[in-house]
Amino acid sequence: MNKKNRFFTAEKLLSASVNGINNDITSLNDLIAVKGLYLTQNDVREVVRTRTRALAENCRFEIGTESVRKITESIFSSQFVDRSNFCDTLCTFIRIFYYIKTASFDSIPDDDVVRLLKDMYENVCYGSLSEMKGREVDMILHYIETEKAKKASNGRKGEGR
Amino acid sequence: MSLSENRRFPYSVRMDRARIFYSDFTDSLIVEAFRAGLLDRDEKERLKNEMAELLRENIHRFSSASSSVSEDTGNEMIGSVLFCLDACLMRFNPEKALSLLVDHPLSSLYFSGVRLVRSYVYKCAGLRLKIGMIGDSFPSPLFQDTIRSKVRSILTHYDIFFKAQKLPAYPEYRTLLTPDRLSGILFLLRYLQNLFCETVFCARFSQNETQHFFHSFSGGEVNFYYPALGNALASVLGGKKEPTLIPSEKVLSKASSGVRKRSEKERIKAISDAAAFISKDHVPFVKGYIVRSTEKYASSLIEAIRNGDPSSVRMIES
Predict the structure, then answer these.
(1) How far is B165 from B191, CA to CA, in rounded Å?
(2) What are B's interface residues with A at a Cβ cutoff of 8 A?
(3) Which residue of B has its CA nearest to A112?
(4) The model's pTM
(5) In chain B, what residues touch A2 (CB-CB under 8 Å)?
(6) Model pLDDT for residues B103-134, shown as the tens digit of each residue
(7) How far is it, in rounded angstroms, from Cα B36 to Cα A59?
(8) Are B247 and B240 in contact (CB under 8 A)?
(9) What does R_g of chain B's alpha carbons equal in angstroms?
(10) How is chain A split into domains, by residue range?
């Protein structure tokens, strides 16, 4: 059967849930409202567009908005985020998030990628998004070093016993 | 609602069965049903959303630490879900399969498919054991290796949830009739059924005869059923009352001259009759395989018998 005529393809399944994704991302407003933040309809559209493009560019497949929710939960409490830069920050994080997932061959769990992103944003770039761009490889290397150090210290503890 | 209860579609609206492919059953069925007007846009959307939900669950099952996967893995997961759905729905005719798709949640059909695929894995394991016992004394290293380790390893590493449409490896020993159009566990099941028939056929001869036969030709690496079939057919065509694996020179020359005398049509009839004769004591399943394989390779078998060396027939290695 010609691939074009197929009913269940990755592209069609991703595009099928666009309305659901819009609603999911709009529902994030309930979460971020506690800090006086909100996403307008235009912001939601921008986030959806960024997510779709990031998925395509990094050859990734995701149903639902679990990653966007995790990223939002992590960044909305940051001291560097306010109403004026929340949407841009979210979009930048989404782009880098999917890049790191693919570049690390899925070896870094979602939660760790989000933690790395926040750590880099707050403690290295001090809230500057332009500083964040191009630092993806640094983040992966930093993660590998941290993991190595953790393993080594665990090993030493084991020997000590 | 159970799988046996379903809505009936009007017979006046027919799907074109030529547009429904058994290699891609569920997908082509939905496309064709939509074209014929048996499925509306809302139903299509519902199926798409249910498929997306199934995939979301499978991604979570694949890696609980990640909510997204690479595109290749995603495509494999879609293929795997469709394979299980196909296994469930292919048992029915397209109209009944469509009514099941419309009346039942996709997840219940999917899990019926998964159960069915799992039962095929058990069937394959059973067949492997049977073939191993029947062909225990066959001195063909490739056959023994395929049955003892290769098929076992394939069954152990077969992944029902994420790669059901693919086998982790393919057996190296080839059967005369190859199930080319099937994939995944359906390929392996048909392969083992074919191998079972070939093994039963070769095991009907005495152990001495079998051992002698295996030592007399060096092509055991590819397939030994084919030359064995050639010898058995030649011995019957040469006038023996019982087929043998090592026909004498006299029998072979009698078979050869008998074939030479006949016209092309008569030769094919004679070889088909001989196949029916040598398989008469087997169960219908094995008998069918012997007759089908003889008919498929009739011309090369006739040629080999005509040349007086029926055991020279060989499968082309791919």
Answers:
(1) 15
(2) 21, 23-24, 26-28, 30-31, 44-45, 47-49, 51-53, 55-56, 59, 63, 65-75, 78, 82
(3) B65
(4) 0.84
(5) none
(6) 999 999 999 999 999 999 999 999 999 999 99
(7) 35
(8) yes
(9) 24
(10) 9-153
**B165 contacts B83 by C-beta, under 8 angstroms:** yes
Contacts of A1 in chain B (CB under 8 A): 21, 23-24, 27-28, 31
Torsion on CA atoms A128, A131, A133, A137, rounded to nearest 10: -130
C-alpha separations of B113 from A153, B48, B185, B188 in Å: 48, 18, 12, 17
Q: Is the pLDDT of residue B260 over 70?
A: yes
Per the listing, tokens 């941290």 go with A146
Residue in A with minimal Cα distance to B81 = A8
Q: Which residues of A18-45 are buried (b: 16+ CB within 10 A; e: fewer)?
A: eeebbebbbebeeebeeeebebeeebbe
Extended strands (E) in chain A: 60-61
* Model confidence at A142: pLDDT above 90: no
Report chain A residues touching chain B, CB-CB < 8 A.
1, 5-10, 12-13, 16-17, 20, 55, 59-64, 66-67, 70, 98, 101-102, 106, 109-111
- Interatomic CA distance for residues A59 and A102, integer angstroms: 8
Cβ pair A1:B70 closer than 8 A:
no
Phi/psi at B70 (5° precision): -70, 160
Candidates B39, B27, B64, B45; CA nearest to A20 is B45
> Do B214 and B208 form a contact (C-beta atoms < 8 A)?
no
Are A70 and A25 in contact, with CB atoms under 8 Å apart?
A: no
Q: What share of chain A is helix, strand, coil (3-state, %, to 5)?
A: 70, 0, 25
- Look at residue A61 and give its three-state secondary structure: strand
Burial string for B182-191 (b: 16+ CB within 10 Å, else e) reads ebbbbbbbbb
Q: In chain A, what's the furthest Cα-to-Cα distance? A: 63
Which residues are registered as beta bridge partners of B173? Answer: none
- Smallest Cα–Cα separation from B216: which of B205, B207, B226, B227? B227
Mean of the per-residue pLDDT values of chain A? 85
Q: What is the pLDDT of residues B198-225, one digit of tens each?
A: 999 999 988 888 888 887 766 555 788 9
The residue type found at B47 is: L
